[in-house]
Protein 1
Amino acid sequence: MAITIKDVAKLANVNPSTVSRVIANNPRISEKTKRIVREAMEQLGYHPNLNARSLVNRNTQTIGIIMPSSAEKAFQNPFFAEVLRGISSKANQQEYAIYMSTGVTEEEIYRGVVNMVQGRRVDGVILLYSRVNDSIMNFLQEENFPFVVIGKPSNHPELITHVDNDNRNAACEVTDYLIQLGHQNIAFVGGSLELVVTIDRLEGYKQALQTADIAIREEYLFQEEFLKEGGQEAVGELFSLPEPPTALVVTDDLMAFGVLSTLYERGFRVPEDISVVSFNNVMLAEFSRPSLTSVEINIYQLGLEAVQCLIDRIREPELPTKRVIVSHQLIVRDSCQQQ
């Protein structure tokens, strides 16, 4: 004879409705009660029919993950593997599955998101980027579909729940760090200016120079994709200038690795000839040669917070929008020195 919710409720000495709420991982049920009910389920060998429950509740228990570009390119950057580790950990804890966009072009990704939302394949989505005038973000707002952004939305961020670092302040701090080391010729190597993270870090860089009364030189500003090749391109351009920089603020560790390898190939010594500071503090930053001074942005925590914010919005759609700022810290290693 099949074990039912009523059997579990009787053994756990609770109402059947409480068992249902425990199965749904309702946050209003105490951890003590959840433990008692789950122990009763395990003792009786009861396994809830999640598919049937999803049909009744019209929930999928699935979160959609939207990548900024094709998965092939994105996964070259350790940032995405680490943020997905945080997302997966929290989603698993809350008994949610993950559905990831797989398009190659922006148009393919957009169509995939439309199908994902209109086909009700997911309960909500997390965007792993923030782009200026992003069609996907606009679509999700028009559909009034639950979503969270990792990054700061470009338009009316107060209206969209997002998880981010204080990127402007972080870039200001690292630029000032180089200024305090005596550097005046400091270049900025960033990603596309369509990405809000690049815009914020560029503004922080400029703010630090202005505060120190150092002129902002347009020839020292370089934007490319957050890939190793972007860093290699930057070195080629910046070091062909009549007065090359003595220090670089690079807005992503993967680009910085490209910078370091190209500098080495060209016979430049880091930090003796040029100082390099970067962002993200991925694991390889500690093991590069020289070890890379980088801003720890707590990527894993960004993923955890994004999932929690999204699940809160799924469960309580009327919740006010939220802005979560994850802390950062400059990790000083061997790639910078006094000018």
Protein 2
Amino acid sequence: MSGPLLTTPRLELWQPQADDESQMYAIVANPATHRYLGGMADRADHFARFQRGAGSWFLKGYGPFMVRIRGEAPVIGNCGVFHSYRGLGPDFDDKPEGGWIIAAEHVGRGFAREAMDAVLGWFDAAHGPREIVCMIDPDNGPSIALAGALGFAFTRDTALPDGAPIRLFSRAGTKAAG
């Protein structure tokens, strides 16, 4: 299976491969990152989430991209638009969902913004302008600010099935540049 390769001035983004799972697990297992990921309990849960992202590529033609610094091997995160169903209501479920996770040691360097700008540009061009939703822990101020910069607007506060509070956002479909 092959997907698009996106490049930015500093980053390379590619469709997840089996070997990426363990690197991504190390990122999300870090307590500085994990605190905002609501509900991920253990390695088995991470594995299921990773597989769900890969399945989104297979079934929908879009999904999370793995991210690395250009010319370097280690994965530093994943950013993308994937398809999920979280049981949060018709204004959120069964829609393309944006998400970004960057390793704690790389946070604050603009990598998530750079990656998501590339992802959203690719998504709009490849799949047409469509609504994209995202969910963010209400305590994650930097991610909420990034959502706003990417064109996501607050829709409502709710809770995940485990009771953890979550804030929902939506980005209206925009015309691809061209």
Protein 3
Amino acid sequence: MVPRSQAPRRAVWTASRTAVAAIVASIALIGSLIAANPAIAAPGATTDATTAVGGGSLADTGMVKAAAVVGFNPENIISDALFYDGAAMSSAEIQTFLDSKIGTCRNGKCLNVLTTGISSRDAVYSQSTGNLICSAIQGGSMKVSELIYRVQVACGISAKVILVTLQKEQGLTTSKEPSDWNLKAAMGASCPDTAPCDPAFAGVGPQILKGTQQLKTYKAAKFAKQPGRNYVGYSPTESCGGTYLNIQNYATAALYSYTPYQPNAAALRAGYGIGDSCSSYGNRNFYQYFADWFGFAEQPVVAGAIKARYDAIGGRLSYLGLPTANEECGLARGGCYQPFAGGYIFISPAGGVFDVSQAIRAGWGPSFEWGPHGYPTGNTTCGLTKGGCYQVFENAVIYSSAMGSYAVESLMQRAYSAAEAEWGSLGYPVAAIQCGLSRGGCYQAFEGGQIFRNPAGYAFAVLSDIRGAWAPDFEWGALGYPVGVRECGLTDGGCYQAFEGGLIFSAPRSGAHALTTDFAAAYSAVNAEYGVLGYPTTDRVCGLAGGGCYQAFQGGYIYSSSAGVFAVRPEVRALWAQYDLEWGSLGYPTSSPAVSGSSYTQTFQGGTVTVADGVATLTAAADPWLNERLTQSWLGSPITQRVCGLAGGGCYQAFQGGYIYSSSAGVFAVRPEVRALWAQYDLEWGSVGYPTSSPAVSGSSYTQTFQGGTVTVADGVATLTAAADPWLNERLTQSWLGSPITQRVCGLAGGGCYQAFQGGYIYSSSAGVFAVRPEVRALWAQYDLEWGSLGYPTSSPAVSGSSYTQTFQGGTVIVTEGVARLD
């Protein structure tokens, strides 16, 4: 049945309830008629004006048989020569054939008496390839035999194929009393199961034209199934399965596109009868009708040693079926063979005679006995797990399964056998051997992994879990090729496999991860998976400080650096993390844990960690920053990373309880109250500069020296004493200045500077550093400030009662009751 071209549909059963009713009625009238289940419509859309077809069938009333089908080759149902024969029968021969099959018509609608018609039409070309599908056809009213003849000539499809298709679809070639439905859906064209038949193609004439054109379209338009490897199911029910077929010609491909199922063993055993719930019959019946009505080529002869083997396995009733050609010799090294519908029999140069199934031969090609596998040395053997078969050849074993047919060459076969072959975790091969890998290696893919042949000429299986850890670089990466088999039976159900550049471990709870050689050595040093580390839980991670790497394990870590490769336990790493791991002052480990009783120590580049009762502590180290952090325990844990780029190249880091600052003056901790005061003086950028000592505690107070002064803290209040810096001294002694409201600004006259504060200003010049009150500066501004005749101040304000004076280079300012005047 053909789904409408404008609405491609899923494959469906093609006989409607009406057709089934017609079949039942025919059975009641004729008595000897056996109705075969309908075939399935082909799915899929096309760019051409035609779409896929399917086909139901009725048994020929004169050919009710129970004998098994003989000679059916699912890969070569009919030859292209017979199928695409545009001169197979004349109009008169077609009429004579219909008369012989139908005889006396009971309702005037039989094909041998029916007159039908079509309209004339131009030639049809494929929209996708440009190939001719059917040449022009002259229409009009005519006998069915004449119409079949004209369509045969125009489309190049044998009238015998059309007659058989009419029979397998609606039983019309033999029907003495066809129904209107049978005639409307004569070829099953554009009659989907899910919608009414397209009225544009209803009737014998349009049906014959449409169906025949479709059979030609598959080849002309390269549409749907084509010769080569195709999966063909046994029925629409997916659980019924199917097989991959190496379809050998366009005619067979067209039949599977028209009716997309192959008969299963039950259907073939039933002849024209009913098989089982997974049987389909369209292509079986096509073969049966064609063979019984018209016959195929002359039957080849089976003789000699080949006949002995053929008879030994059951002859035509065996899986080989009927021969399709005579014995042929002159093969590689003097061998011979004969082809059969279901396979071949070969005579090897050594004299052995072996049958080869079609499925096995697919994995033997394309060079067959001329290729690297040589001749078979045993017969096809089936009954393997999941319905598989195998056959031994001179240089390989070929396996056939639902995964396809593939050769496993001898070296890889040894590795395959060591892994329990198809019964083991590898399962069946799913691809042919692939070479051209790094350093000339090869591999072959299986259901559960791969087998690799390394450059040294040894082959080892790599199962999926191990392969996942080997990815993404595989043999091109640091691990190289496998050099040993997968070893299991480790603790917790673990396994491992050795590679050129290390090991891969796999365990149920930790997954599969690779260890390069250096990490594997450090791992072994702590008793590998049986030791405290357990199994690896991550892959190796690099890009750490100084080019270091690490890898996590169930019970710890391994780190590598220029200092070496060493294991690190979790409690040590937790402490190390407080010091920024390898990026911090501790650096990398320089030894493995040195155990002494219930305690152990481990040295790092910047210090030593001691672990007692599971608690890790860090001793003082040469690094000043680390020393300060250790000795000032009130600092707590860090809350930021170390930040550098401060004034003069200094650095700092914030902690829970304070800060550490480093500069040319040293590395010292600073408490929050000291830093708050320091911030009022612009921190390290101001006149106080950097700290030059750690806090010196005395009772409830403490002091801390800076480059520009000393901070004293009493009862949590920090104060700054006078310092050597004149600017700072002025700021401290003139408390009325308050906090700064601008940064220090320089570039004034004579290289002077100034800074604004809440209560006034500080000016510096060659005359010194002095504070200036707002009322004095307002008067000074009238004389152009430092650029005018007054110049810079030469003293701080000198208070006397409610008045004060301040001297400048060019005069003295007197302030009385807030009013400034120049003396």
